Amino acid sequence: MHGDTGGEMTLAFDLDALRQLAHPDAVFTDARQWSEYVGIVSDEPTYVVTNFARKHRVRQDFFSGPRGRTESLENVMGQFETPRYVYVGTDDEAAALAEEAGWEFLDVTDAAEAAEWELGEPEPPAQAEQEETRDDWP
User: Fold this and answer.
1) CA atoms in the 13 A half-sphere facing the CB of 42
2) Chain segment 81-130, per-residue pLDDT in tens
3) What gap in Å lies between CA 113 and CA 125, rounded to an integer?
4) How far apart are CA 77 and CA 35, in angstroms?
5) Which domains does the chain possess?
């Protein structure tokens, strides 16, 4: 994943794929170095995706909203213009969905190996990183 893409890629993670990565926040931070846009796609309700992103401090450029994964990938492709569109998923269904929507598919295990991301149950960022400081608070 660290190839010379020059930020010319839109990268979408299936929520199920993110749930297999130990540090989703670090994955997004890393992916932003070589991707123009990074987001989450899921068939789950919007609040589930939003809660996962908030809990793991993931800043996404797009998310599926109330749409299904196929429609979401098509909409993202229509809104974010890049030479490549890569969908990180977990199974053959996700691979077929990516092909149908015109995206490249990458299995989360292969992506993790290539990018040196740790697989495992997602852990929230360290407590010290979660605490926000406010300059306007006594």
Assistant:
1) 19
2) 999 999 999 999 999 999 999 999 999 999 999 999 999 999 877 754 44
3) 21
4) 14
5) 9-118 (3.40.50.1000)
Q: In this structure, what token pair is assigned to residue 25?
A: 């926040």
Q: Which residues contact 85 (CB under 8 A, 6 or more apart)?
A: 9, 10, 12, 73, 76, 77, 102, 103, 104
**How long, in residues, is the chain?**
138
* Distance from the Cα of residue 10 to its chain's centroid: 10
Sequence-distant (6+) residues with CB within 8 A of 127 are none
Element (H, E) at 38: strand 37-41
> For the chain, how far is it from start to end, CA to CA, in angstroms?
45
pTM reported for the whole predicted model: 0.85
User: Measured between alpha carbons, how far is 74 from 81 in angstroms, rounded to an integer?
Assistant: 12
On average, the pLDDT of the chain sits at 88
Write out the two tokens for 70. Answer: 């196929």
Q: 107 has which bridge partners?
A: 89
